[in-house]
Design goal:
The chain is mostly helical and 303 residues long. It has three domains: 87 residues, no CATH class; 83 residues, no CATH class; 124 residues, Regulator of G-protein Signalling 4, domain 2. The protein is elongated and about 85 Å long. The two termini are 32 Å apart.
């Protein structure tokens, strides 16, 4: 599950760091300017000053150097992230592939922007009609197209194939999904490992792991059920839990389970997580369908 707290905190820290960077540089610039003998002399970094908001800033070579230095910092962070991306396992959503494609195109657009800016006729004439800065905007448009539009198109095409559309003339009908099929795949050690690995690379291993723990819970003697049940509730059925399940009204479900446990701690029913198990299997239906579409071995077993 995605941690909204982490995402919001990351965005806030990035925003705050930029504000602090601006204030620090502005303070340094004001100190340098205040020590000059001529008050009409332009500021060192930004000619009117960092805190002059009555009109637009006027660039200088010093400011250009700051922008380049800051851009390099972001590029270093991006390349570190790229290395981690390359070292990671290939996901089932093609996110890694899309990232690599975008990273390859990005430097090309930056170089094109620099080259266009160095051509006098473009910088002095064409830019008045079609700003060459749009080259960088094209990078953002390309990213949206590759990372947002294409995945939607892939999914529409896949649904079209599953439903017997025109694209399915030479394809097999693999629309075989049911709770019984899912349970058969999960109960076999060989297919279970394939299922779990596919779920992990799909960023949704929680239903598989929870289903596994439920099966273990059913085999426990009564005296050991409470400890296992509480651990499972904290791991899967709690907001912001490490392996939080995608469940409706998760707080209500957590409360109901705890009430059952507290009612009779020594006689916790074996069916305690029956509804959770059903929801896990339901959540795995789409995952199973995609696994069947992408894994010929699994497809041969369920067809």
């Amino acid at each position: 599950m995605t941690s909204h707290t982490f995402v919001i905190s990351a965005y806030f820290l990035c925003f705050l760091s930029q504000i602090l960077f601006w204030i620090i540089l502005g303070g340094i610039d004001e100190i340098i300017h205040s020590n000059t003998k001529n008050e009409n002399e332009p500021h060192f970094f930004v000619i009117p000053g960092f805190f002059q908001f009555s009109y637009g800033c006027i660039g200088s070579s010093a400011m250009f150097g700051i922008i380049i230095a800051e851009a390099l910092v972001y590029y270093i962070v991006e390349w570190i992230t790229l290395v981690l991306c390359i070292r990671s396992d290939r996901d089932t959503w093609n996110i890694k592939k899309e990232t690599l494609v975008h990273v390859i195109v990005q430097p090309f657009l930056v170089i094109l922007f620099i080259v266009l800016g160095s051509i006098p006729i473009i910088a002095e004439l064409v830019d008045y009609f079609v700003p060459y800065l749009l080259v960088l905007l094209a990078g953002s448009v390309f990213e949206i197209f590759v990372c947002v539009v294409l995945p939607v198109c892939y999914d529409i095409r896949l649904d079209f194939i599953r439903n017997g559309g025109l694209f399915s003339i030479n394809s097999k009908n693999r629309n075989i999904t049911s709770f019984s099929t899912t349970e058969i795949l999960l109960k076999d050690p060989k297919t279970y490992s394939i299922f779990l690995d596919f779920a992990r690379r799909s960023y949704t291993p929680e239903p598989v792991l929870c289903w596994t723990d439920i099966q273990k819970f059913k085999k426990l003697p009564k005296k050991d059920r409470k400890e296992k049940a509480l651990k499972m509730i904290d791991s899967y059925i709690s907001l912001s839990a490490p392996l939080e399940l995608n469940l409706p009204n998760i707080n209500v479900m957590r409360r109901d389970l705890l009430n059952i446990i507290e009612k009779d701690e020594t006689n916790i029913p074996i069916e305690l997580f029956e509804n959770v198990e059903t929801l896990c299997l339901q959540d795995l239906l789409d995952l199973q369908q995609r696994l069947v579409d992408q894994n010929d071995f699994i497809a041969s077993l369920v067809e």
